[in-house]
Predict the structure.
Amino acid sequence: MSLDGAVERREDPPAGNGNGNGAVAVVVAPPTGRPTYGDRRLRLNPNTEHKPERYDDLETEFDPSIFSSLERHLPPTMLEVPRDAKIQFMKEILARYLPEGERTRVQRHKEYRQKIMSAYLPLHSDLYNMEPTTFFMPSFIKAINDNTEESFRSIISEPSPGVYTFAMLQPNFCELLLEEVENFEKWVNAVKFKIMRPNTMNKYGAVLDDFGLEPMLSKLMEEFICPMSKVFFPEVGGSTLDSHHGFVVEYGKDKDLELGFHVDDSEITLNVCLGKQFSGGELFFRGVRCDKHVNSDTQPEEILDYSHVPGQAILHRGRHRHGARATTSGHRINLLLWCRSNQLFFESLPDPNRAPARAELLLRAVYSEFLQRAIYPRYLL
Protein backbone atom coordinates (compact mmCIF):
# COMPACT_ATOMS: atom_id res chain seq x y z
CA MET A 1 0.00 0.00 0.00
CA SER A 2 1.47 3.35 -0.97
CA LEU A 3 0.91 6.50 1.05
CA ASP A 4 2.00 8.60 -1.93
CA GLY A 5 -0.56 9.96 -4.36
CA ALA A 6 -0.22 10.59 -8.07
CA VAL A 7 0.03 14.14 -9.36
CA GLU A 8 -3.42 15.28 -10.35
CA ARG A 9 -3.66 16.38 -14.00
CA ARG A 10 -6.55 18.85 -14.09
CA GLU A 11 -8.00 19.60 -17.51
CA ASP A 12 -7.68 23.36 -17.40
CA PRO A 13 -7.24 25.28 -20.65
CA PRO A 14 -3.55 25.24 -21.64
CA ALA A 15 -1.80 28.54 -21.18
CA GLY A 16 1.77 29.69 -21.63
CA ASN A 17 4.72 28.00 -23.30
CA GLY A 18 7.97 26.56 -22.05
CA ASN A 19 11.23 27.63 -23.65
CA GLY A 20 14.61 26.08 -24.28
CA ASN A 21 15.90 27.16 -20.87
CA GLY A 22 13.31 25.17 -18.96
CA ALA A 23 11.34 28.26 -17.94
CA VAL A 24 7.56 28.33 -17.72
CA ALA A 25 5.44 31.44 -18.00
CA VAL A 26 3.55 32.17 -14.80
CA VAL A 27 1.17 35.08 -15.12
CA VAL A 28 0.98 36.91 -11.81
CA ALA A 29 -0.43 40.40 -12.18
CA PRO A 30 1.13 42.78 -9.63
CA PRO A 31 -1.29 44.91 -7.62
CA THR A 32 -1.68 48.54 -8.61
CA GLY A 33 1.30 50.69 -7.69
CA ARG A 34 3.77 47.82 -7.30
CA PRO A 35 6.69 47.78 -9.76
CA THR A 36 6.81 45.09 -12.40
CA TYR A 37 10.06 43.15 -12.50
CA GLY A 38 10.77 42.46 -16.16
CA ASP A 39 10.87 38.75 -16.93
CA ARG A 40 8.42 37.10 -14.52
CA ARG A 41 8.84 33.56 -15.79
CA LEU A 42 9.36 30.79 -13.27
CA ARG A 43 12.12 28.25 -13.91
CA LEU A 44 10.81 24.70 -14.09
CA ASN A 45 14.34 23.38 -13.48
CA PRO A 46 15.85 24.74 -10.23
CA ASN A 47 18.95 26.92 -10.14
CA THR A 48 21.01 24.51 -8.06
CA GLU A 49 23.93 26.97 -7.76
CA HIS A 50 21.76 29.62 -6.12
CA LYS A 51 21.77 29.73 -2.32
CA PRO A 52 18.29 30.83 -1.22
CA GLU A 53 17.62 33.11 1.71
CA ARG A 54 16.20 31.75 4.96
CA TYR A 55 12.57 32.47 5.73
CA ASP A 56 12.27 31.04 9.24
CA ASP A 57 11.18 34.43 10.57
CA LEU A 58 8.33 34.76 8.09
CA GLU A 59 4.84 34.89 9.59
CA THR A 60 2.67 33.13 7.02
CA GLU A 61 0.41 30.12 6.64
CA PHE A 62 3.06 28.50 4.44
CA ASP A 63 5.98 26.48 5.73
CA PRO A 64 9.26 28.48 5.48
CA SER A 65 10.90 25.64 3.53
CA ILE A 66 8.45 26.32 0.70
CA PHE A 67 9.94 29.76 0.11
CA SER A 68 13.53 28.50 0.23
CA SER A 69 12.74 25.79 -2.32
CA LEU A 70 10.67 28.03 -4.55
CA GLU A 71 13.36 30.73 -4.62
CA ARG A 72 15.57 28.41 -6.69
CA HIS A 73 12.87 28.51 -9.38
CA LEU A 74 12.58 32.29 -9.56
CA PRO A 75 13.59 34.05 -12.79
CA PRO A 76 17.08 35.66 -12.71
CA THR A 77 15.62 39.17 -12.50
CA MET A 78 13.71 38.29 -9.32
CA LEU A 79 16.85 37.02 -7.57
CA GLU A 80 18.27 40.54 -7.56
CA VAL A 81 15.28 42.30 -5.98
CA PRO A 82 14.85 42.97 -2.23
CA ARG A 83 13.78 40.06 -0.04
CA ASP A 84 10.33 41.58 0.60
CA ALA A 85 9.68 41.74 -3.15
CA LYS A 86 10.70 38.10 -3.57
CA ILE A 87 8.39 37.11 -0.74
CA GLN A 88 5.46 38.98 -2.27
CA PHE A 89 6.10 37.45 -5.69
CA MET A 90 6.26 33.94 -4.24
CA LYS A 91 3.13 34.51 -2.15
CA GLU A 92 1.26 35.48 -5.32
CA ILE A 93 2.39 32.26 -7.01
CA LEU A 94 1.48 30.12 -4.00
CA ALA A 95 -1.94 31.73 -3.70
CA ARG A 96 -2.64 31.06 -7.37
CA TYR A 97 -1.58 27.43 -7.49
CA LEU A 98 -2.87 26.23 -4.13
CA PRO A 99 -6.63 25.58 -4.40
CA GLU A 100 -8.95 27.43 -2.02
CA GLY A 101 -9.87 24.22 -0.24
CA GLU A 102 -6.21 23.46 0.43
CA ARG A 103 -5.58 26.98 1.72
CA THR A 104 -8.47 26.50 4.14
CA ARG A 105 -6.97 23.27 5.42
CA VAL A 106 -3.56 24.92 5.75
CA GLN A 107 -5.08 27.69 7.85
CA ARG A 108 -7.03 25.18 9.94
CA HIS A 109 -3.89 23.23 10.74
CA LYS A 110 -2.01 26.42 11.61
CA GLU A 111 -4.78 27.37 14.05
CA TYR A 112 -4.70 23.85 15.50
CA ARG A 113 -1.00 24.16 16.26
CA GLN A 114 -1.37 27.66 17.67
CA LYS A 115 -4.10 26.49 20.03
CA ILE A 116 -1.85 23.72 21.35
CA MET A 117 1.24 25.91 21.67
CA SER A 118 -0.67 28.59 23.57
CA ALA A 119 -2.05 26.18 26.16
CA TYR A 120 0.24 23.16 26.50
CA LEU A 121 2.97 23.38 29.17
CA PRO A 122 5.99 21.17 28.37
CA LEU A 123 7.05 18.69 31.02
CA HIS A 124 10.74 18.64 30.01
CA SER A 125 11.78 21.96 28.50
CA ASP A 126 15.30 20.62 27.80
CA LEU A 127 13.85 18.41 25.05
CA TYR A 128 12.86 21.42 23.00
CA ASN A 129 16.47 22.52 22.44
CA MET A 130 18.99 20.30 20.72
CA GLU A 131 21.73 19.27 23.14
CA PRO A 132 23.78 16.57 21.39
CA THR A 133 25.78 15.40 24.41
CA THR A 134 22.63 14.55 26.36
CA PHE A 135 20.63 13.30 23.36
CA PHE A 136 23.03 11.08 21.42
CA MET A 137 25.48 8.24 22.01
CA PRO A 138 29.14 9.42 21.99
CA SER A 139 29.97 7.15 19.03
CA PHE A 140 27.22 8.77 16.95
CA ILE A 141 28.38 12.31 17.84
CA LYS A 142 31.97 11.48 16.90
CA ALA A 143 30.94 10.02 13.55
CA ILE A 144 28.91 13.12 12.70
CA ASN A 145 31.71 15.47 13.79
CA ASP A 146 34.26 13.60 11.66
CA ASN A 147 31.73 13.74 8.79
CA THR A 148 33.29 11.16 6.48
CA GLU A 149 31.95 8.00 4.92
CA GLU A 150 34.58 6.07 6.84
CA SER A 151 33.42 7.54 10.17
CA PHE A 152 29.78 6.71 9.39
CA ARG A 153 30.56 3.16 8.35
CA SER A 154 32.50 2.65 11.57
CA ILE A 155 29.24 2.87 13.59
CA ILE A 156 26.65 1.37 11.24
CA SER A 157 25.56 -2.04 10.07
CA GLU A 158 23.93 -2.64 6.68
CA PRO A 159 21.92 -5.85 7.10
CA SER A 160 20.33 -5.35 3.67
CA PRO A 161 21.28 -3.00 0.80
CA GLY A 162 20.08 0.51 1.62
CA VAL A 163 19.06 -0.25 5.22
CA TYR A 164 21.41 1.15 7.87
CA THR A 165 21.28 0.59 11.63
CA PHE A 166 23.31 2.28 14.39
CA ALA A 167 23.22 3.17 18.10
CA MET A 168 21.87 6.72 18.30
CA LEU A 169 19.84 7.83 21.35
CA GLN A 170 20.89 7.77 25.00
CA PRO A 171 18.51 5.92 27.37
CA ASN A 172 17.84 9.08 29.39
CA PHE A 173 16.71 10.98 26.30
CA CYS A 174 14.36 8.12 25.35
CA GLU A 175 12.83 8.20 28.84
CA LEU A 176 12.34 11.98 28.77
CA LEU A 177 10.70 11.90 25.35
CA LEU A 178 8.38 9.07 26.40
CA GLU A 179 7.37 11.07 29.47
CA GLU A 180 6.78 14.19 27.34
CA VAL A 181 4.53 12.29 24.92
CA GLU A 182 2.60 10.74 27.83
CA ASN A 183 2.21 14.18 29.40
CA PHE A 184 0.92 15.62 26.11
CA GLU A 185 -1.62 12.82 25.71
CA LYS A 186 -2.85 13.31 29.28
CA TRP A 187 -3.29 17.02 28.59
CA VAL A 188 -5.19 16.30 25.36
CA ASN A 189 -7.59 14.01 27.22
CA ALA A 190 -7.99 16.44 30.14
CA VAL A 191 -8.95 19.39 27.93
CA LYS A 192 -10.94 17.14 25.55
CA PHE A 193 -8.88 18.29 22.59
CA LYS A 194 -9.10 16.24 19.39
CA ILE A 195 -5.60 15.13 18.48
CA MET A 196 -4.36 14.69 14.91
CA ARG A 197 -2.72 11.29 14.52
CA PRO A 198 0.61 10.83 12.71
CA ASN A 199 -0.72 9.34 9.45
CA THR A 200 -3.56 7.45 7.86
CA MET A 201 -2.33 4.05 9.07
CA ASN A 202 -1.69 4.69 12.79
CA LYS A 203 -4.58 5.29 15.18
CA TYR A 204 -2.27 5.92 18.15
CA GLY A 205 0.70 8.23 18.57
CA ALA A 206 1.27 11.96 18.23
CA VAL A 207 2.81 14.47 15.83
CA LEU A 208 5.77 15.95 17.71
CA ASP A 209 5.90 18.99 15.44
CA ASP A 210 2.41 19.97 16.62
CA PHE A 211 3.36 20.63 20.25
CA GLY A 212 6.63 22.52 19.91
CA LEU A 213 9.30 20.00 18.95
CA GLU A 214 9.53 21.05 15.29
CA PRO A 215 12.66 23.27 15.70
CA MET A 216 14.50 20.52 17.56
CA LEU A 217 13.59 17.94 14.91
CA SER A 218 14.60 20.32 12.11
CA LYS A 219 18.03 20.62 13.70
CA LEU A 220 18.17 16.85 14.11
CA MET A 221 17.53 16.43 10.39
CA GLU A 222 19.81 19.22 9.17
CA GLU A 223 22.83 18.63 11.38
CA PHE A 224 22.73 14.89 12.13
CA ILE A 225 20.72 13.07 9.47
CA CYS A 226 21.69 15.11 6.39
CA PRO A 227 25.43 14.36 6.70
CA MET A 228 24.69 10.63 6.59
CA SER A 229 22.00 10.84 3.90
CA LYS A 230 24.36 12.82 1.62
CA VAL A 231 26.70 9.83 1.67
CA PHE A 232 24.23 6.95 1.54
CA PHE A 233 21.22 8.37 -0.34
CA PRO A 234 22.47 11.05 -2.79
CA GLU A 235 20.35 9.73 -5.66
CA VAL A 236 17.07 10.22 -3.79
CA GLY A 237 17.55 13.72 -2.41
CA GLY A 238 19.80 12.86 0.52
CA SER A 239 21.89 15.98 -0.02
CA THR A 240 18.91 18.37 -0.28
CA LEU A 241 16.63 17.42 2.63
CA ASP A 242 14.72 20.55 3.64
CA SER A 243 11.49 19.57 5.42
CA HIS A 244 10.24 16.84 7.73
CA HIS A 245 7.30 15.23 9.51
CA GLY A 246 8.18 14.09 13.03
CA PHE A 247 5.98 11.81 15.15
CA VAL A 248 5.79 8.87 17.52
CA VAL A 249 3.76 5.68 17.03
CA GLU A 250 2.53 3.37 19.78
CA TYR A 251 1.96 -0.39 19.65
CA GLY A 252 0.66 -2.91 22.19
CA LYS A 253 -2.49 -3.84 24.06
CA ASP A 254 -5.23 -1.25 23.48
CA LYS A 255 -2.95 0.40 20.88
CA ASP A 256 -2.07 -0.41 17.29
CA LEU A 257 -0.86 -4.00 17.08
CA GLU A 258 0.88 -4.07 13.72
CA LEU A 259 1.49 -1.99 10.58
CA GLY A 260 0.63 -3.18 7.10
CA PHE A 261 2.90 -3.35 4.07
CA HIS A 262 3.52 0.20 2.81
CA VAL A 263 5.98 2.88 1.72
CA ASP A 264 6.54 6.22 3.48
CA ASP A 265 5.72 9.72 2.23
CA SER A 266 9.39 10.68 2.47
CA GLU A 267 12.71 10.58 0.70
CA ILE A 268 14.54 9.27 3.78
CA THR A 269 13.03 7.75 6.93
CA LEU A 270 14.65 7.66 10.37
CA ASN A 271 13.05 5.18 12.78
CA VAL A 272 14.29 4.91 16.38
CA CYS A 273 12.83 2.66 19.05
CA LEU A 274 12.25 4.54 22.32
CA GLY A 275 11.09 1.55 24.39
CA LYS A 276 9.44 0.36 26.60
CA GLN A 277 9.29 -3.37 27.48
CA PHE A 278 7.79 -5.38 24.60
CA SER A 279 7.91 -8.54 22.54
CA GLY A 280 7.43 -8.82 18.78
CA GLY A 281 6.96 -5.76 16.60
CA GLU A 282 9.72 -6.68 14.14
CA LEU A 283 10.06 -4.59 10.99
CA PHE A 284 10.09 -6.47 7.71
CA PHE A 285 11.63 -4.99 4.54
CA ARG A 286 10.91 -6.13 1.01
CA GLY A 287 12.89 -3.96 -1.42
CA VAL A 288 12.60 -0.51 -3.01
CA ARG A 289 9.83 0.11 -5.56
CA CYS A 290 8.31 2.98 -7.54
CA ASP A 291 4.56 3.70 -7.46
CA LYS A 292 3.89 1.56 -10.54
CA HIS A 293 5.49 -1.54 -9.04
CA VAL A 294 4.89 -1.06 -5.33
CA ASN A 295 3.01 -4.38 -5.11
CA SER A 296 5.38 -6.42 -7.27
CA ASP A 297 7.01 -9.64 -6.09
CA THR A 298 9.91 -9.65 -3.63
CA GLN A 299 13.27 -11.14 -4.56
CA PRO A 300 15.02 -13.40 -1.99
CA GLU A 301 17.91 -10.95 -1.51
CA GLU A 302 15.43 -8.15 -0.60
CA ILE A 303 13.99 -9.95 2.45
CA LEU A 304 15.01 -8.50 5.81
CA ASP A 305 13.46 -8.89 9.27
CA TYR A 306 14.67 -6.42 11.89
CA SER A 307 14.15 -6.56 15.67
CA HIS A 308 13.87 -3.24 17.52
CA VAL A 309 16.32 -2.27 20.26
CA PRO A 310 15.64 0.87 22.36
CA GLY A 311 17.95 3.70 21.28
CA GLN A 312 18.86 1.89 18.04
CA ALA A 313 18.12 3.77 14.81
CA ILE A 314 17.31 2.46 11.38
CA LEU A 315 17.70 4.68 8.30
CA HIS A 316 16.21 3.80 4.91
CA ARG A 317 14.60 5.22 1.79
CA GLY A 318 10.95 6.16 2.05
CA ARG A 319 10.30 4.02 -1.02
CA HIS A 320 11.70 0.93 0.71
CA ARG A 321 8.65 -1.30 1.23
CA HIS A 322 8.18 -2.35 4.83
CA GLY A 323 5.75 -3.11 7.62
CA ALA A 324 5.68 -4.05 11.31
CA ARG A 325 4.65 -7.39 12.75
CA ALA A 326 2.33 -7.61 15.74
CA THR A 327 3.63 -6.45 19.12
CA THR A 328 2.67 -9.55 21.11
CA SER A 329 3.20 -8.16 24.62
CA GLY A 330 4.17 -4.96 26.37
CA HIS A 331 4.20 -1.44 24.93
CA ARG A 332 6.43 -0.30 22.05
CA ILE A 333 6.91 3.36 21.06
CA ASN A 334 9.01 4.54 18.12
CA LEU A 335 10.20 7.95 16.97
CA LEU A 336 9.77 8.51 13.23
CA LEU A 337 11.25 11.33 11.17
CA TRP A 338 10.13 11.48 7.55
CA CYS A 339 12.73 13.64 5.78
CA ARG A 340 11.88 15.26 2.46
CA SER A 341 13.57 17.10 -0.40
CA ASN A 342 11.37 19.64 -2.16
CA GLN A 343 14.20 20.27 -4.62
CA LEU A 344 14.18 16.61 -5.64
CA PHE A 345 10.43 16.82 -6.21
CA PHE A 346 10.90 19.61 -8.74
CA GLU A 347 13.88 17.95 -10.42
CA SER A 348 11.82 14.81 -11.04
CA LEU A 349 9.39 16.66 -13.31
CA PRO A 350 9.20 15.81 -17.03
CA ASP A 351 11.13 18.00 -19.48
CA PRO A 352 8.71 20.83 -20.47
CA ASN A 353 10.42 21.17 -23.85
CA ARG A 354 8.84 17.90 -24.96
CA ALA A 355 5.35 19.34 -24.57
CA PRO A 356 5.71 23.14 -24.31
CA ALA A 357 2.05 23.82 -25.04
CA ARG A 358 1.08 22.03 -21.82
CA ALA A 359 3.92 23.37 -19.70
CA GLU A 360 1.83 25.68 -17.51
CA LEU A 361 -0.94 23.09 -17.19
CA LEU A 362 1.66 20.66 -15.87
CA LEU A 363 3.12 23.31 -13.60
CA ARG A 364 -0.27 24.06 -12.07
CA ALA A 365 -0.90 20.38 -11.37
CA VAL A 366 2.58 19.94 -9.95
CA TYR A 367 2.32 22.96 -7.66
CA SER A 368 -0.92 21.65 -6.23
CA GLU A 369 0.80 18.35 -5.42
CA PHE A 370 3.98 20.06 -4.21
CA LEU A 371 2.11 22.36 -1.86
CA GLN A 372 -0.06 19.58 -0.44
CA ARG A 373 3.07 17.52 0.21
CA ALA A 374 5.23 20.25 1.70
CA ILE A 375 2.74 22.53 3.44
CA TYR A 376 -0.16 20.37 4.48
CA PRO A 377 0.85 16.74 3.84
CA ARG A 378 -1.82 14.28 2.78
CA TYR A 379 -1.33 12.16 5.90
CA LEU A 380 -3.29 14.83 7.74
CA LEU A 381 -6.12 15.14 5.22
About this structure: The longest strand covers residues 327-340. Residues 1-38, 376-381 have pLDDT under 50 and may be disordered. The domain at 123-344 is CATH 2.60.120.620 (Jelly Rolls).
